[in-house]
Amino acid sequence: MDSEVFNIILDYINIVFLLFTVVLFAMFSFMGYLSTRNSLHYKNKNSFGDLSKIMASPLAPSITIIAPAYNEGMTIVENIRSLMSLRYVNYEVMLVNDGSEDDTLEKMIKAYDLVQIEQEIDPNRRHKPIRGIYKSQHKAFSKLTVIDKENGGKSDALNTGMALSTNKYIGCIDVDCLLLPDALLHVVKSFFQRSERRVIAVGGVIRVANSCLISGGHLEEIRLPKNWLARFQLLEYTRSFILGRMAWGRIDSLLIISGAFGFFDREIALAVGGYDTNTVGEDMEIVFKMRRFMHEQKLPYTVEYMPDSLCWTEVPEDLGVFINQRDRWARGNLETLFKHKDMFFNSKFGRLGLLSYPYWFFYEWLAPLLEFFGFFTIILFFYLGILKLDFFIAITAAVYMFSIMFSFYAILWDVYSYNEYKRTKDILILMLCAIMEPILFHPIVVWSSVRGNLKKLFKVNSGWGSQVRKGFAKAT
Amino acid sequence: MISEFLFHEDDASKEEKSNYVNLKIEIRQLLKSDFNRQVLSEILLDLRKDVSGDAQKRLMKLYQDLGLHQDAFVKLKSWRWEVISKGISELTQMRVEESYSFITKFINDKRGTIRKQAEIATVTLKNEGIDYFLDTTKYRISEWQQLKLLDVLRNQEDFEPPRFKAWLTSNNKFVVLFALRLIKYYNQNDVIASLIELIKHKNNQIKDEAIACIKEFNVVEALGTLKLVFWKSSVDIKISILGAITVLGTEVDLEFLRLIENKESNFLVRSKAISSINTIAPGSIMPKKGIVQITGNQIPEDIVQEPISDTEKDIYEPSATKTVIPSNDELETEQPTDELIKGPKNEEMEEDNEKLDIKTNLDEIASINLDFLPLVIDEVEETKSSTVTTELIEKEIVHDVSEITVVFEEIVAPFLEDSFSSFENTDEEQSSLDELSEREVAFIPIVIEDVTDSEKEALFHEEELTSEQKSTRQFEEAIEEEMAMMKPEQDINIGAETFGQMNFSPTIFKEEWIVEKKQDLFDETKEVEALNLEVVYDEVKIDPSNKEESSVSDDFLEWPFEETMNEEYNDLGNLPLEPSEKSTKNVVDQNFEIEAILRKLPEPKYYDGETILTMRLLDDIEALGDQREVPVLKELLQEAKTTCVIDRINEIMETFELEIQVQSSQKEIKPISAEFKPFSVFEDLFRTCDTEAKLILMDEIIDIGDEKEVKFLKSLLEDPEIRIREKAEPILEGLQNKLFHESLLFEPSLAFIDDSRTDKYEGSFLSQLLSFPNKIIEKLNG
User: Fold this and answer.
1) Which of its termini does chain A have fewer beta carbons within 10 Å around, N or C?
2) Which of B238, B267, B286 to mutate to probe the A interface, most A CBs <10 Å?
3) Predicted ipTM of the assembly
4) Domain segments of chain B: what residues?
């Protein structure tokens, strides 16, 4: 009797896994299709006109780039120089020193000849106390504003910048990111091209800058990372940004804008209270909030996504740092989904509630946990002797092949659309990564995610973790 | 090959020309292939971006000479949006003007990319293209598209911008918005009225752009409308409006800006308002945060507070249980002591005859009038007060002070009464009171005479103290010990002459001041007279054998009696003005002084219990009663045994009889006619109008006038203006006739009918009967 019940349970587990896998395959295929269409559309649409012509237009909107910095003394001067050299007429770089314990502020003051200025601060905005606001005495650096504040985390630093900015749009970036000179022109175009809907946020692709040749804040040569962990991450980013987000962008259901490169309509961002300082997944949470706000206000809106390679950043090459990063992402994911749980299959939020949220719930949060659980189930089945080995190998091979195919498609599309890695060797290495990734890299990602969830479940205090930056110059 | 075409000169050699022609033939051969045409087209389009001036023109000419534009025309017929868009884009880039009419068809295409390319082409290909576009477009124009269109216009050669105000009335709000931006860019400042109207537009973008134009063109006329729309605008618009007011505003607008500063909740708007205020009137609003409040002439305590010897402290330090209540009409909180001490100030006091600078305890002052002299209040006994004179005694015999209660009530001397009453409600007093209520003023010594120069100097150093310190004890501390130890005769040398010079108003007591005193004290007190001041105070007769029963509350009697202050009391009157707290602690050393004071106190009168009760009753009768109490008073008079009671009754009866006489005289009321002379409204009107108006008004007199106008018309008969005189006569006759008829129209029946019952009798036989005489009179009148 007991064995019958046990068999029934096992059957159900099999069905659940099968169903889950089939739906996953279907969705990934559909995403491949959507992303392809969107990429083509984007390419055609943007083939007309010259962006650079309008960089000094009198109608160009004002943008503030907010870059929080914490103990970035090694690279801060170079990073600021890179931000100051963007091709756009009406922008400001606001660097928020989030209580750095190193010489970040001193280096900035020295390099850019900063002096403290008096500026009134909105007392209604919540953030850690500001210790000083600095502006450069040199006209060449007039676009630079440095805010020195007490340490409060990335979200708090971004909120401070948001409160002090008076421009129409704000860009929240990681200070160690390298923006291409035309980045702001693309951003402005994305904000301005819609006339029937308000563009509340614009996100872009994050490219991996490890091993790239960078000089004077400019990307001189794009190279494939030498570190294998970085290569795996590059493949993952390509798949995610070129296929995943492009597809979600096509159906206007994008739920996340990378914290390393995200631009927002300041009015709406402030209306929702800025970033949530109580979560480590603040980049995802703010998009949830803004979308929710617009839904509740019944205002037509959209979140734009730019597939152009505009932002380049270093990814962790150390396994421990990498696991911490993914652990944090998992916790942020869980926190955000839990905070907005009322959106789950809620038709009031349209596609957001019926499609985006469930996808994130099942395939971004639950999938790693199921994978982890499935791994132990297979071992259990094997020891119990109920594992049909031939079927298991067949289904595993199918899943594996699908995974490789999906990665190959992402590489192919990237080469076709943007062709960043022109050397054949690089493409081959990337393909090799795609073959090895499910075996070597993916289990680490799953474990990091499980660890993050366990930490959250057992309320283990864990912050952001830290990554020691090599600096672009040194990376070469 | 292409460069050969681009840089070929007309004046080239024959050989070059020959090569050029051969090259052309060769290219035409190549272009027979579609692929080659496509490649060449792409090359030329790319090359166009890299060349300018004549080379660019030649490139465009070559493009058309080779017939490549025909391919672009073909693309326009495609069904695919990207092909059509590409065709339009090629024709636009190569400035194929003949394509203008073909492309304009796409200007309202439902496919966005085609439409946008058509819009740019229309504006690019012909200078009047912008007019056509703005006239015909039905779709929204995105911000990006506006940006690109403006960029096209900016780079147009020989472009003469049309007057864009024509499109401010467009139904397409995006056209209006774009027109506004073009107006601003091309400085077309002849659209002031439209701009002012557009501030009221419901679309924030249009509103914002209109404000920007107003700011740019310095349209001062728009200020009123800007203020009008401000409160209902969004935060961004409010900031824009304030930006415009900053540029256009004057000091007249400061009130509005200050209103925003006070009422607006949004920080950014408030900040902008403050910024505007400071721009219009620099320095209007100063920084507040982090500013340390510094009061005037504040000197660190370690400098001001000189160490005081124990003796000094004993003499002058205010006792915790004593408070000198100043009695003055005017409170000069900053320099009261100076005014009293300095010679010139004293002279000023003589002139004013009523000013005494005081400092007083705020809590005490709040509940009392200030028209009295400084008193010493025993705070332990819950603000029971006395003069300092009695206080000194009290200090000496403090061990049994609660046994006896003495009540003084003093009134001002008659000759001073007027001056006090006239001063009572002056502005100075009011301001002093206001000032007093704002700060805590404990007490103040009022008069110090014969202070040596060195002493004065010591006192004036106290100016450096804070006002609060000055108002409390610093003054007393500044007086040297030896001065305090002086004999009263030396220290308080105030005779009749001095008193007259001082001329302060020390003796008004409007509130009851109770001082507990030892019973023996009253045996020693004598009735004193001031030279020129009458003191009226109460007498309390206390049975020496029953002093335990004489509690403050029971035996608190306050009927007045008059005593004339003798010369000795003059000294006494000044004594309490001295700071006394410290001296009370040295009572042993000052016995002689106290004895002198005791001798000068008025001697109290004592009554038995029955007399007290009778007197209290009489007092109540006087206060509350009138002439109707006279019989009662007569009864009391019959029963009265003591002369004081009899006197008192007689006094009250006299007062009541006097009141009766006054009332009876008032009862002779003059008739209303005597009080209010009949006054014609026309009389008033005639004072201000001209002759013509008077003549017109006179026509109205017959209709609306009554007997009041008769007299007026009679006066007009003697008017200097002949026309008025002539007209007044017939009108007077007419009015008199009218009044006569009205007098006949008196309806006697109404006099018999109660108003409230009119309805009841209406139409009844009785009413008809009563109205019968009226009907007869009407018939007689015709």
Assistant:
1) N
2) B267
3) 0.83
4) 1-66, 311-438, 454-558, 564-600, 609-669, 681-781
